[in-house]
Amino acid sequence: MKTVVYSYRDFDEKKWFDHYSKELGMELVICRDAPSKENVHLAEGCACMDILTSKMTRELIAKFHEAGVRYLATRTIGYDHIDVEAAKEFGIQVANAPYGPDGVADYTVMLILMSLRNMKRIIERTNIQDYTLKGSLGRELKDLTVGVIGTGRIGRTVVRDLSGFGCQILAYDLYPNEEAGRFAQYVPLEELFARADIITLHTPLTEENYHLVNEKTMSGMKDGVVIVNTARGPLIDIPALIAQIEKGKIGAAALDVVENEFGLYYYDRKSDVLSNRELAILRGFPNVTVSHHMAFYTENAIRTMVADSLKGCKCFMEGKENPWRVI
Ligand code: NAI
Known about the structure:
The chain has helices at residues 14-24, 58-67, 84-89, 102-116, 119-127, 153-162, 178-181, 189-195, 215-219, 238-247, 277-284, 299-318, and strands at residues 2-5, 27-30, 46-51, 71-74, 93-95, 145-149, 168-172, 185-186, 198-201, 225-229, 250-255, 288-290. The protein has 12 helices and 12 strands. It is globular and about 65 Å long. The model has no long low-confidence stretch (mean pLDDT 97).
């Protein structure tokens, strides 16, 4: 049984696909593009299919089912790009590849420190040989209170990592856990907003928390608060954030994710005129750091994504218990 791999990347994934397909004795069919009606023929004779974050609509699922696919692995944690109801109806199993939380947690701590030390301004100045001090006075983490919203795999790792800096840590989650509770004090959300000097988001996006950071919630935050988002863009109402940055209410922001990033991030758009004004405004602020959904991107994560997606396919082929199966 063969496995067809879509959105295959040579520069970082190839070496791990080579390594694990050999180790697991699997035959792969490679496609560098995302799955589509045009390349569905590559899946013929493949029971397993391995994808990234491209949309798997009902229509596409039907096509791949017709080609013989019965197992769909995504080399990501999230699987909201797959129409799981359609997959269920067609009897296609779905699996993910949850890499460890440390890469995103490291990145979050880095963004917190960069924001507190005005690193964007420092780098920009150094690049033009402006070696002055004025306007780049930093703050020390030990003097501050960090509010962590969402203490699942990533949030609680951030809490653990921050505990070494001597700062006070507040946490909020619908389901508090003991591990985060060892280093952080769980408080109601309004209290976290009111007391935190830095607020970092680590919840999934749900209907309930869409635009969790909005005009009203920001009005309950401390003046000069730092907001960090390495979770999902729509957790923040960006026009409202821009307004509060302009008023000086928000001291700094670091955004690895933004609403409407789909179609921009991971593409080379440097010669294009973009219609995303909000992103242009954010990028222009000296106290806002924007990155293109990079927090996950480590050697360890890429290796795990490839390894676990293939191991799941192997379990399916051999009819074994599959820890990566989600549907
Ligand atoms: P997780 O599922 O382990 O933890 C999420 C936590 O959020 C849970 O404890 C849950 O109870 C809590 N939660 C859910 N809704 C909530 C709400 N309305 N209010 C308060 N707490 C709520 O998820 P994990 O793996 O820690 O991921 C956290 C976020 O990081 C997700 O949004 C994920 O999509 C994002 N992420 C971002 C990456 C990046 O590269 N920037 C990479 C990987 C994940």
